[in-house]
Protein backbone atom coordinates (compact mmCIF):
# COMPACT_ATOMS: atom_id res chain seq x y z
CA UNK A 1 0.00 0.00 0.00
CA UNK A 2 1.34 3.43 -0.96
CA UNK A 3 1.14 6.33 1.46
CA UNK A 4 0.31 9.65 -0.21
CA UNK A 5 1.80 12.85 1.16
CA UNK A 6 0.43 15.12 -1.56
CA UNK A 7 -1.79 18.12 -0.89
CA UNK A 8 -2.95 18.24 -4.52
CA UNK A 9 -4.54 15.64 -6.79
CA UNK A 10 -2.51 12.45 -6.92
CA UNK A 11 -2.33 10.62 -10.25
CA UNK A 12 0.00 8.11 -11.84
CA UNK A 13 2.89 9.62 -13.82
CA UNK A 14 4.66 6.44 -14.96
CA UNK A 15 4.60 5.70 -17.81
CA UNK A 16 4.34 9.26 -19.10
CA UNK A 17 2.65 8.05 -22.30
CA UNK A 18 -0.19 5.63 -21.37
CA UNK A 19 0.08 3.49 -24.52
CA UNK A 20 3.60 2.45 -23.55
CA UNK A 21 2.27 0.19 -20.79
CA UNK A 22 0.40 -2.03 -23.28
CA UNK A 23 3.33 -4.10 -24.65
CA UNK A 24 4.92 -4.21 -21.21
CA UNK A 25 1.94 -5.75 -19.39
CA UNK A 26 1.56 -8.18 -22.32
CA UNK A 27 5.19 -9.23 -21.87
CA UNK A 28 4.65 -9.58 -18.11
CA UNK A 29 1.60 -11.77 -18.62
CA UNK A 30 3.20 -13.94 -21.30
CA UNK A 31 6.27 -14.84 -19.24
CA UNK A 32 5.32 -14.42 -15.59
CA UNK A 33 1.58 -15.13 -15.19
CA UNK A 34 1.01 -17.30 -12.11
CA UNK A 35 4.37 -16.41 -10.55
CA UNK A 36 5.02 -14.28 -7.48
CA UNK A 37 6.00 -10.65 -8.04
CA UNK A 38 9.26 -10.48 -6.14
CA UNK A 39 12.87 -9.41 -6.65
CA UNK A 40 13.60 -12.53 -8.72
CA UNK A 41 10.75 -12.06 -11.18
CA UNK A 42 11.31 -8.30 -11.27
CA UNK A 43 14.95 -8.80 -12.32
CA UNK A 44 13.93 -11.42 -14.88
CA UNK A 45 11.23 -9.11 -16.27
CA UNK A 46 13.76 -6.31 -16.77
CA UNK A 47 16.17 -8.67 -18.53
CA UNK A 48 13.43 -9.63 -20.98
CA UNK A 49 12.29 -6.04 -21.34
CA UNK A 50 15.76 -4.83 -22.33
CA UNK A 51 15.69 -7.25 -25.27
CA UNK A 52 12.40 -5.94 -26.60
CA UNK A 53 12.06 -3.39 -29.39
CA UNK A 54 9.58 -1.31 -27.43
CA UNK A 55 11.94 -0.63 -24.51
CA UNK A 56 13.84 2.66 -24.52
CA UNK A 57 16.00 2.74 -21.43
CA UNK A 58 18.52 0.95 -19.31
CA UNK A 59 17.06 0.02 -15.94
CA UNK A 60 20.67 -0.63 -14.98
CA UNK A 61 21.12 1.05 -11.59
CA UNK A 62 18.37 -0.88 -9.80
CA UNK A 63 16.57 -3.23 -12.23
CA UNK A 64 14.11 -4.53 -9.61
CA UNK A 65 13.11 -0.97 -8.71
CA UNK A 66 12.73 -0.14 -12.42
CA UNK A 67 10.41 -3.13 -12.83
CA UNK A 68 8.26 -2.04 -9.90
CA UNK A 69 8.20 1.52 -11.23
CA UNK A 70 6.84 0.29 -14.57
CA UNK A 71 4.26 -2.18 -13.22
CA UNK A 72 3.28 -1.09 -9.69
CA UNK A 73 2.31 2.40 -10.77
CA UNK A 74 -0.14 2.94 -13.66
CA UNK A 75 -0.73 -0.74 -14.65
CA UNK A 76 -1.66 -1.72 -11.07
CA UNK A 77 -3.26 1.59 -10.04
CA UNK A 78 -5.54 1.57 -13.08
CA UNK A 79 -6.55 -2.05 -12.58
CA UNK A 80 -4.78 -3.68 -15.51
CA UNK A 81 -2.62 -6.08 -13.47
CA UNK A 82 -2.90 -7.99 -10.20
CA UNK A 83 0.39 -8.70 -8.43
CA UNK A 84 -0.82 -10.56 -5.35
CA UNK A 85 -0.91 -13.41 -4.57
CA UNK A 86 0.46 -14.04 -8.09
CA UNK A 87 0.89 -12.08 -11.31
CA UNK A 88 -2.09 -11.91 -13.66
CA UNK A 89 -3.89 -9.53 -15.98
CA UNK A 90 -7.37 -8.44 -14.94
CA UNK A 91 -10.25 -8.58 -17.44
CA UNK A 92 -9.54 -4.89 -18.11
CA UNK A 93 -5.86 -5.69 -18.68
CA UNK A 94 -6.71 -8.46 -21.15
CA UNK A 95 -9.05 -6.07 -22.96
CA UNK A 96 -6.32 -3.42 -23.12
CA UNK A 97 -3.96 -5.89 -24.77
CA UNK A 98 -6.50 -7.41 -27.16
CA UNK A 99 -9.15 -4.75 -27.84
CA UNK A 100 -9.22 -2.72 -31.03
CA UNK A 101 -10.59 0.36 -29.25
CA UNK A 102 -8.05 0.82 -26.49
CA UNK A 103 -9.20 4.38 -25.83
CA UNK A 104 -12.48 3.04 -24.46
CA UNK A 105 -10.61 0.68 -22.12
CA UNK A 106 -8.46 3.54 -20.83
CA UNK A 107 -11.59 5.62 -20.25
CA UNK A 108 -13.34 3.03 -18.07
CA UNK A 109 -10.27 2.60 -15.89
CA UNK A 110 -9.58 6.32 -15.54
CA UNK A 111 -13.15 6.91 -14.41
CA UNK A 112 -12.68 4.32 -11.63
CA UNK A 113 -9.28 5.51 -10.40
CA UNK A 114 -9.79 7.01 -6.95
CA UNK A 115 -8.07 8.33 -3.86
CA UNK A 116 -8.33 7.02 -1.21
CA UNK A 117 -8.32 3.35 -2.11
CA UNK A 118 -6.87 0.13 -0.69
CA UNK A 119 -3.82 0.90 -2.90
CA UNK A 120 -3.41 4.54 -1.87
CA UNK A 121 -3.94 5.84 1.65
CA UNK A 122 -3.54 9.44 2.75
CA UNK A 123 -0.82 10.22 5.27
CA UNK A 124 -1.36 12.58 8.21
CA UNK A 125 0.36 15.32 6.19
CA UNK A 126 -1.62 14.93 2.97
CA UNK A 127 -4.87 16.42 1.75
CA UNK A 128 -8.09 14.77 2.89
CA UNK A 129 -8.76 13.00 -0.42
CA UNK A 130 -12.23 11.98 -1.53
CA UNK A 131 -12.19 12.04 -5.31
CA UNK A 132 -12.02 10.27 -8.64
CA UNK A 133 -9.51 12.69 -10.18
CA UNK A 134 -10.00 11.97 -13.88
CA UNK A 135 -13.79 11.94 -13.62
CA UNK A 136 -13.78 15.36 -11.97
CA UNK A 137 -11.24 16.78 -14.43
CA UNK A 138 -13.51 15.69 -17.29
CA UNK A 139 -16.34 17.48 -15.47
CA UNK A 140 -14.23 20.61 -15.06
CA UNK A 141 -13.27 20.72 -18.75
CA UNK A 142 -16.88 20.12 -19.76
CA UNK A 143 -18.10 22.88 -17.43
CA UNK A 144 -15.78 25.52 -18.89
CA UNK A 145 -15.68 24.23 -22.46
CA UNK A 146 -11.93 24.70 -22.48
CA UNK A 147 -9.25 24.77 -19.78
CA UNK A 148 -5.75 26.16 -20.14
CA UNK A 149 -2.90 23.93 -18.97
CA UNK A 150 -2.09 26.55 -16.32
CA UNK A 151 -5.66 26.34 -15.03
CA UNK A 152 -5.46 22.55 -14.77
CA UNK A 153 -2.16 22.85 -12.92
CA UNK A 154 -2.93 25.71 -10.53
CA UNK A 155 -6.60 24.97 -9.78
CA UNK A 156 -7.67 21.60 -11.21
CA UNK A 157 -5.11 19.81 -9.06
CA UNK A 158 -6.65 21.38 -5.95
CA UNK A 159 -9.82 19.34 -6.54
CA UNK A 160 -8.87 16.74 -3.92
CA UNK A 161 -12.51 16.32 -2.82
CA UNK A 162 -15.25 16.25 -5.46
CA UNK A 163 -17.54 18.09 -3.05
CA UNK A 164 -15.29 21.14 -3.52
CA UNK A 165 -16.04 21.26 -7.27
CA UNK A 166 -17.90 24.58 -7.15
CA UNK A 167 -15.12 26.12 -5.06
CA UNK A 168 -12.57 25.25 -7.74
CA UNK A 169 -14.89 26.57 -10.45
CA UNK A 170 -15.05 29.90 -8.63
CA UNK A 171 -11.25 30.00 -8.25
CA UNK A 172 -10.86 29.58 -12.01
CA UNK A 173 -13.48 32.28 -12.66
CA UNK A 174 -11.62 34.69 -10.39
CA UNK A 175 -8.32 33.86 -12.08
CA UNK A 176 -9.79 34.63 -15.49
CA UNK A 177 -11.17 37.95 -14.27
CA UNK A 178 -7.83 38.91 -12.74
CA UNK A 179 -6.03 37.86 -15.91
CA UNK A 180 -8.33 40.03 -18.04
CA UNK A 181 -7.70 42.99 -15.75
CA UNK A 182 -3.95 42.47 -15.69
CA UNK A 183 -2.14 44.84 -18.04
CA UNK A 184 1.34 43.48 -17.32
CA UNK A 185 2.91 40.48 -19.00
CA UNK A 186 1.18 37.15 -18.43
CA UNK A 187 4.33 35.32 -17.34
CA UNK A 188 4.79 37.62 -14.33
CA UNK A 189 1.07 37.58 -13.51
CA UNK A 190 0.99 33.78 -13.62
CA UNK A 191 4.08 33.43 -11.42
CA UNK A 192 2.64 35.72 -8.75
CA UNK A 193 -0.76 34.00 -8.84
CA UNK A 194 0.81 30.53 -8.64
CA UNK A 195 3.01 31.60 -5.72
CA UNK A 196 -0.03 32.89 -3.82
CA UNK A 197 -1.94 29.64 -4.39
CA UNK A 198 1.07 27.54 -3.31
CA UNK A 199 1.44 29.66 -0.17
CA UNK A 200 -2.18 28.82 0.65
CA UNK A 201 -1.99 25.10 -0.23
CA UNK A 202 1.18 24.55 1.82
CA UNK A 203 0.49 27.09 4.58
CA UNK A 204 0.63 24.43 7.33
CA UNK A 205 4.02 23.13 6.15
CA UNK A 206 5.41 26.64 5.89
CA UNK A 207 4.10 27.61 9.34
CA UNK A 208 5.61 24.51 10.95
CA UNK A 209 8.95 24.89 9.15
CA UNK A 210 8.59 21.66 7.15
CA UNK A 211 10.08 23.13 3.97
CA UNK A 212 13.03 20.80 3.35
CA UNK A 213 12.68 18.72 0.18
CA UNK A 214 14.09 15.25 -0.39
CA UNK A 215 16.42 16.31 -3.17
CA UNK A 216 18.28 19.02 -1.25
CA UNK A 217 19.26 20.34 2.17
CA UNK A 218 17.94 23.76 1.21
CA UNK A 219 14.96 24.45 3.49
CA UNK A 220 14.15 27.91 2.15
CA UNK A 221 10.51 28.66 1.38
CA UNK A 222 11.36 29.75 -2.18
CA UNK A 223 13.09 26.44 -2.93
CA UNK A 224 10.24 24.52 -1.30
CA UNK A 225 7.59 26.27 -3.38
CA UNK A 226 9.66 25.93 -6.56
CA UNK A 227 9.85 22.17 -6.01
CA UNK A 228 6.11 21.93 -5.36
CA UNK A 229 5.39 23.92 -8.54
CA UNK A 230 7.59 21.53 -10.53
CA UNK A 231 5.75 18.53 -9.08
CA UNK A 232 2.43 20.12 -10.00
CA UNK A 233 3.58 20.60 -13.59
CA UNK A 234 4.40 16.88 -13.77
CA UNK A 235 1.02 15.90 -12.31
CA UNK A 236 -0.89 18.25 -14.61
CA UNK A 237 1.02 16.98 -17.63
CA UNK A 238 0.22 13.38 -16.67
CA UNK A 239 -3.46 14.27 -16.21
CA UNK A 240 -3.68 15.78 -19.67
CA UNK A 241 -1.83 12.91 -21.34
CA UNK A 242 -4.02 10.27 -19.72
CA UNK A 243 -7.21 12.17 -20.56
CA UNK A 244 -5.96 12.40 -24.14
CA UNK A 245 -5.56 8.61 -24.26
CA UNK A 246 -9.36 8.29 -24.11
CA UNK A 247 -9.75 10.03 -27.48
CA UNK A 248 -12.38 12.33 -25.96
CA UNK A 249 -10.37 15.54 -25.67
CA UNK A 250 -8.57 17.86 -28.05
CA UNK A 251 -5.29 19.57 -27.24
CA UNK A 252 -4.55 23.04 -28.57
CA UNK A 253 -0.76 22.87 -28.74
CA UNK A 254 -0.43 26.57 -29.50
CA UNK A 255 -2.97 27.78 -26.94
CA UNK A 256 -1.93 25.04 -24.49
CA UNK A 257 -5.52 24.20 -23.63
CA UNK A 258 -7.74 21.13 -23.42
CA UNK A 259 -11.36 20.75 -24.57
CA UNK A 260 -13.89 18.01 -25.29
CA UNK A 261 -13.99 16.81 -28.91
CA UNK A 262 -17.32 18.25 -30.21
CA UNK A 263 -18.43 14.89 -31.64
CA UNK A 264 -17.73 13.24 -28.25
CA UNK A 265 -19.67 15.65 -26.00
CA UNK A 266 -22.70 13.34 -25.84
CA UNK A 267 -20.48 10.47 -24.68
CA UNK A 268 -18.84 12.63 -22.01
CA UNK A 269 -22.20 13.92 -20.77
CA UNK A 270 -23.41 10.34 -20.49
CA UNK A 271 -20.70 9.13 -18.13
CA UNK A 272 -20.67 12.40 -16.18
CA UNK A 273 -24.37 11.82 -15.45
CA UNK A 274 -24.22 8.08 -14.79
CA UNK A 275 -20.87 7.50 -13.06
CA UNK A 276 -20.87 7.50 -9.26
CA UNK A 277 -18.62 10.28 -7.93
CA UNK A 278 -18.05 8.52 -4.59
CA UNK A 279 -14.89 6.41 -4.07
CA UNK A 280 -15.72 2.71 -3.66
CA UNK A 281 -14.54 -0.15 -1.40
CA UNK A 282 -12.06 2.03 0.49
CA UNK A 283 -11.27 -0.64 3.09
CA UNK A 284 -11.87 -3.85 1.17
CA UNK A 285 -9.00 -4.66 -1.20
CA UNK A 286 -10.55 -7.86 -2.57
CA UNK A 287 -13.76 -6.10 -3.60
CA UNK A 288 -11.84 -3.10 -4.89
CA UNK A 289 -9.56 -5.22 -7.09
CA UNK A 290 -12.58 -7.00 -8.60
CA UNK A 291 -14.37 -3.68 -9.15
CA UNK A 292 -11.33 -1.90 -10.59
CA UNK A 293 -10.33 -4.79 -12.85
CA UNK A 294 -13.73 -5.16 -14.49
CA UNK A 295 -13.75 -4.50 -18.24
CA UNK A 296 -17.46 -3.66 -18.24
CA UNK A 297 -17.84 -0.88 -15.68
CA UNK A 298 -18.68 1.91 -15.48
CA UNK A 299 -21.35 1.98 -18.19
CA UNK A 300 -20.56 4.13 -21.23
CA UNK A 301 -22.87 5.49 -23.90
CA UNK A 302 -21.72 2.73 -26.27
CA UNK A 303 -23.10 0.16 -23.82
CA UNK A 304 -26.61 1.53 -24.38
CA UNK A 305 -27.92 -0.04 -27.58
CA UNK A 306 -30.51 2.65 -28.32
CA UNK A 307 -28.03 5.49 -27.84
CA UNK A 308 -25.32 3.69 -29.81
CA UNK A 309 -27.69 3.17 -32.74
CA UNK A 310 -28.57 6.87 -32.65
CA UNK A 311 -24.90 7.83 -32.62
CA UNK A 312 -24.08 5.57 -35.58
CA UNK A 313 -27.01 7.00 -37.56
CA UNK A 314 -25.95 10.57 -36.71
CA UNK A 315 -22.27 10.19 -37.62
CA UNK A 316 -22.64 7.65 -40.43
CA UNK A 317 -26.18 8.06 -41.85
CA UNK A 318 -25.47 5.78 -44.84
CA UNK A 319 -24.89 2.76 -42.62
CA UNK A 320 -27.81 0.34 -42.48
CA UNK A 321 -28.20 -1.28 -39.05
CA UNK A 322 -29.68 -4.78 -38.95
CA UNK A 323 -32.19 -5.34 -36.16
CA UNK A 324 -30.62 -8.73 -35.47
CA UNK A 325 -27.17 -7.25 -34.84
CA UNK A 326 -25.87 -7.79 -31.31
CA UNK A 327 -24.53 -4.93 -29.19
CA UNK A 328 -20.98 -6.15 -29.80
CA UNK A 329 -21.58 -6.24 -33.55
CA UNK A 330 -22.86 -2.66 -33.38
CA UNK A 331 -19.72 -1.65 -31.50
CA UNK A 332 -17.60 -3.32 -34.19
CA UNK A 333 -19.52 -1.53 -36.95
CA UNK A 334 -19.00 1.79 -35.18
CA UNK A 335 -15.29 1.07 -34.68
CA UNK A 336 -14.90 0.11 -38.36
CA UNK A 337 -16.55 3.32 -39.53
CA UNK A 338 -14.46 5.47 -37.21
CA UNK A 339 -11.32 3.82 -38.56
CA UNK A 340 -12.39 4.30 -42.18
CA UNK A 341 -13.16 7.97 -41.56
CA UNK A 342 -9.78 8.49 -39.89
CA UNK A 343 -7.92 6.83 -42.77
CA UNK A 344 -9.83 8.98 -45.26
CA UNK A 345 -8.93 12.14 -43.35
CA UNK A 346 -5.25 11.15 -43.24
CA UNK A 347 -5.29 10.31 -46.96
CA UNK A 348 -6.66 13.79 -47.69
CA UNK A 349 -3.96 15.30 -45.48
CA UNK A 350 -1.26 13.42 -47.40
CA UNK A 351 -2.62 14.68 -50.73
CA UNK A 352 -2.51 18.28 -49.46
CA UNK A 353 1.03 17.76 -48.11
CA UNK A 354 2.36 16.29 -51.35
CA UNK A 355 0.94 19.26 -53.25
CA UNK A 356 2.94 21.61 -50.99
CA UNK A 357 -0.29 23.24 -49.84
CA UNK A 358 0.85 22.83 -46.22
CA UNK A 359 4.44 24.01 -46.73
CA UNK A 360 3.99 27.25 -44.76
CA UNK A 361 2.14 25.46 -41.96
CA UNK A 362 4.85 22.79 -41.67
CA UNK A 363 7.56 25.45 -41.60
CA UNK A 364 5.80 27.54 -38.94
CA UNK A 365 5.21 24.44 -36.81
CA UNK A 366 8.95 23.66 -36.86
CA UNK A 367 9.63 27.27 -35.83
CA UNK A 368 7.24 26.85 -32.89
CA UNK A 369 8.98 23.59 -31.90
CA UNK A 370 12.39 25.27 -31.97
CA UNK A 371 10.96 28.10 -29.87
CA UNK A 372 9.59 25.52 -27.41
CA UNK A 373 6.20 27.23 -27.61
CA UNK A 374 3.93 24.20 -28.14
CA UNK A 375 2.25 22.10 -25.45
CA UNK A 376 3.77 18.73 -26.44
CA UNK A 377 6.93 19.40 -28.43
CA UNK A 378 8.05 15.71 -28.76
CA UNK A 379 4.69 14.69 -30.23
CA UNK A 380 4.53 17.69 -32.54
CA UNK A 381 8.11 17.09 -33.71
CA UNK A 382 7.27 13.50 -34.62
CA UNK A 383 4.05 14.47 -36.39
CA UNK A 384 5.49 17.46 -38.25
CA UNK A 385 8.56 15.50 -39.37
CA UNK A 386 6.20 12.89 -40.84
CA UNK A 387 4.46 15.68 -42.73
CA UNK A 388 7.82 17.07 -43.90
CA UNK A 389 9.06 13.66 -45.08
CA UNK A 390 5.79 13.13 -46.93
CA UNK A 391 6.28 16.45 -48.71
CA UNK A 392 10.03 16.00 -49.23
CA UNK A 393 10.06 13.26 -51.83
CA UNK A 394 8.30 10.25 -53.32
CA UNK A 395 7.69 7.07 -51.35
CA UNK A 396 5.24 5.59 -48.89
CA UNK A 397 5.82 7.49 -45.63
CA UNK A 398 4.24 5.92 -42.53
CA UNK A 399 4.10 7.59 -39.12
CA UNK A 400 3.96 5.20 -36.20
CA UNK A 401 2.50 7.79 -33.85
CA UNK A 402 -1.11 7.33 -32.78
CA UNK A 403 -3.76 9.47 -34.47
CA UNK A 404 -7.16 10.20 -32.97
CA UNK A 405 -10.45 9.58 -34.78
CA UNK A 406 -10.04 12.84 -36.71
CA UNK A 407 -6.45 12.43 -37.88
CA UNK A 408 -4.89 14.61 -35.18
CA UNK A 409 -1.67 13.52 -33.47
CA UNK A 410 -2.53 11.82 -30.19
CA UNK A 411 0.61 10.20 -28.79
CA UNK A 412 4.13 9.32 -29.92
CA UNK A 413 5.15 5.90 -31.26
CA UNK A 414 4.96 3.15 -28.64
CA UNK A 415 8.66 2.36 -28.94
CA UNK A 416 8.62 -1.04 -30.69
CA UNK A 417 9.36 0.59 -34.05
CA UNK A 418 10.91 3.62 -35.64
CA UNK A 419 9.05 6.93 -35.37
CA UNK A 420 8.64 7.09 -39.15
CA UNK A 421 9.24 4.39 -41.77
CA UNK A 422 9.70 5.34 -45.43
CA UNK A 423 9.38 2.76 -48.20
CA UNK A 424 11.07 3.76 -51.48
CA UNK A 425 10.58 0.35 -53.17
CA UNK A 426 14.29 -0.37 -53.73
CA UNK A 427 15.34 0.70 -50.22
CA UNK A 428 13.92 1.79 -46.90
CA UNK A 429 14.50 4.68 -44.53
CA UNK A 430 13.70 5.05 -40.84
CA UNK A 431 13.40 8.50 -39.33
CA UNK A 432 13.88 9.00 -35.60
CA UNK A 433 13.25 12.30 -33.83
CA UNK A 434 13.87 13.48 -30.29
CA UNK A 435 13.75 16.64 -28.25
CA UNK A 436 16.37 15.18 -25.91
CA UNK A 437 19.77 16.88 -25.80
CA UNK A 438 23.09 16.37 -24.06
CA UNK A 439 24.20 12.98 -22.75
CA UNK A 440 20.59 11.97 -22.21
CA UNK A 441 20.12 11.96 -25.99
CA UNK A 442 22.78 9.30 -26.41
CA UNK A 443 21.64 7.22 -23.43
CA UNK A 444 17.98 7.01 -24.48
CA UNK A 445 18.22 7.07 -28.27
CA UNK A 446 21.54 5.56 -29.35
CA UNK A 447 20.81 1.85 -29.12
CA UNK A 448 17.05 1.85 -29.88
CA UNK A 449 17.62 3.84 -33.09
CA UNK A 450 20.04 1.17 -34.30
CA UNK A 451 17.70 -1.64 -33.25
CA UNK A 452 14.74 -0.11 -35.10
CA UNK A 453 16.81 0.21 -38.27
CA UNK A 454 17.87 -3.44 -37.99
CA UNK A 455 14.20 -4.42 -37.60
CA UNK A 456 13.29 -2.69 -40.87
CA UNK A 457 16.23 -4.32 -42.68
CA UNK A 458 15.19 -7.73 -41.41
CA UNK A 459 11.49 -7.31 -42.23
CA UNK A 460 11.95 -5.81 -45.71
CA UNK A 461 15.09 -7.70 -46.74
CA UNK A 462 16.44 -4.68 -48.59
CA UNK A 463 18.93 -1.86 -47.91
CA UNK A 464 17.81 0.67 -45.33
CA UNK A 465 19.18 3.86 -43.82
CA UNK A 466 18.25 6.08 -40.87
CA UNK A 467 17.85 9.82 -40.45
CA UNK A 468 18.16 11.02 -36.84
CA UNK A 469 16.78 14.51 -36.14
CA UNK A 470 16.97 16.63 -32.98
CA UNK A 471 17.16 20.37 -32.23
CA UNK A 472 20.80 19.77 -31.28
CA UNK A 473 22.96 16.71 -31.85
CA UNK A 474 25.02 15.40 -28.95
CA UNK A 475 28.69 14.63 -29.67
CA UNK A 476 28.33 11.12 -28.22
CA UNK A 477 25.59 10.37 -30.77
CA UNK A 478 27.82 11.65 -33.58
CA UNK A 479 30.64 9.35 -32.45
CA UNK A 480 28.30 6.37 -31.99
CA UNK A 481 26.63 6.68 -35.40
CA UNK A 482 29.96 7.28 -37.12
CA UNK A 483 31.35 4.07 -35.64
CA UNK A 484 28.30 2.09 -36.73
CA UNK A 485 28.99 3.09 -40.36
CA UNK A 486 32.18 1.02 -40.09
CA UNK A 487 31.25 -1.78 -37.70
CA UNK A 488 29.83 -4.95 -39.24
CA UNK A 489 27.55 -6.21 -36.46
CA UNK A 490 25.35 -9.16 -37.41
CA UNK A 491 22.88 -8.34 -34.59
CA UNK A 492 22.14 -5.06 -36.40
CA UNK A 493 22.18 -6.55 -39.89
CA UNK A 494 25.74 -5.45 -40.74
CA UNK A 495 26.91 -1.84 -40.83
CA UNK A 496 24.34 0.84 -39.96
CA UNK A 497 24.02 4.05 -41.96
CA UNK A 498 22.55 6.51 -39.47
CA UNK A 499 22.89 10.23 -40.20
CA UNK A 500 22.26 12.69 -37.34
CA UNK A 501 21.14 16.18 -38.36
CA UNK A 502 20.09 19.26 -36.37
CA UNK A 503 16.51 20.28 -37.01
CA UNK A 504 17.62 23.54 -38.68
CA UNK A 505 19.61 21.58 -41.28
CA UNK A 506 16.67 19.26 -41.94
CA UNK A 507 14.51 22.37 -42.41
CA UNK A 508 16.92 23.55 -45.12
CA UNK A 509 16.50 20.18 -46.88
CA UNK A 510 12.72 20.63 -46.81
CA UNK A 511 12.99 24.18 -48.16
CA UNK A 512 15.29 23.00 -50.96
CA UNK A 513 12.74 20.38 -52.02
CA UNK A 514 10.13 23.14 -52.25
CA UNK A 515 12.36 25.48 -54.25
CA UNK A 516 13.69 22.83 -56.63
CA UNK A 517 12.60 23.10 -60.26
CA UNK A 518 11.80 19.38 -60.20
CA UNK A 519 10.14 16.96 -57.78
CA UNK A 520 12.82 15.16 -55.72
CA UNK A 521 12.94 11.42 -56.27
CA UNK A 522 13.97 8.45 -54.11
CA UNK A 523 17.36 8.38 -55.88
CA UNK A 524 18.19 11.76 -54.36
CA UNK A 525 17.49 10.37 -50.89
CA UNK A 526 19.58 7.26 -51.46
CA UNK A 527 22.41 9.30 -52.95
CA UNK A 528 22.57 11.38 -49.76
CA UNK A 529 22.91 8.33 -47.50
CA UNK A 530 25.40 6.60 -49.77
CA UNK A 531 27.43 9.80 -49.63
CA UNK A 532 27.44 9.40 -45.84
CA UNK A 533 28.94 5.93 -46.28
CA UNK A 534 31.63 7.33 -48.58
CA UNK A 535 32.50 10.08 -46.11
CA UNK A 536 32.67 7.61 -43.22
CA UNK A 537 35.13 5.48 -45.16
CA UNK A 538 37.28 8.42 -46.29
CA UNK A 539 37.53 10.21 -42.92
CA UNK A 540 39.43 9.10 -39.84
CA UNK A 541 37.30 10.78 -37.15
CA UNK A 542 33.66 11.49 -36.41
CA UNK A 543 33.97 15.29 -36.52
CA UNK A 544 35.18 15.37 -40.13
CA UNK A 545 32.45 12.92 -41.14
CA UNK A 546 29.73 14.89 -39.35
CA UNK A 547 30.86 18.22 -40.81
CA UNK A 548 31.01 16.64 -44.25
CA UNK A 549 27.58 15.05 -44.17
CA UNK A 550 26.06 18.24 -42.76
CA UNK A 551 27.41 20.13 -45.78
CA UNK A 552 25.98 17.44 -48.04
CA UNK A 553 22.58 17.89 -46.39
CA UNK A 554 22.68 21.64 -47.00
CA UNK A 555 23.20 20.93 -50.71
CA UNK A 556 21.42 17.61 -51.06
CA UNK A 557 19.65 18.42 -54.32
CA UNK A 558 22.68 19.89 -56.09
CA UNK A 559 23.31 17.76 -59.17
From TrEMBL:
Keyword Hydrolase in annotation: yes
InterPro entries, per the entry: Restrct_endonuc_II_AlwI
Enzyme class: hydrolase
Domain of life: Bacteria
GO MF terms, alphabetically ordered: endonuclease activity; hydrolase activity
Keywords: Endonuclease, Hydrolase, Nuclease
Gene3D superfamilies: 3.40.91.50
Keyword Aminoacyl-tRNA synthetase: no
The protein's Enzyme Commission number: 3.1.21.-
Official protein name in the record: AlwI family type II restriction endonuclease
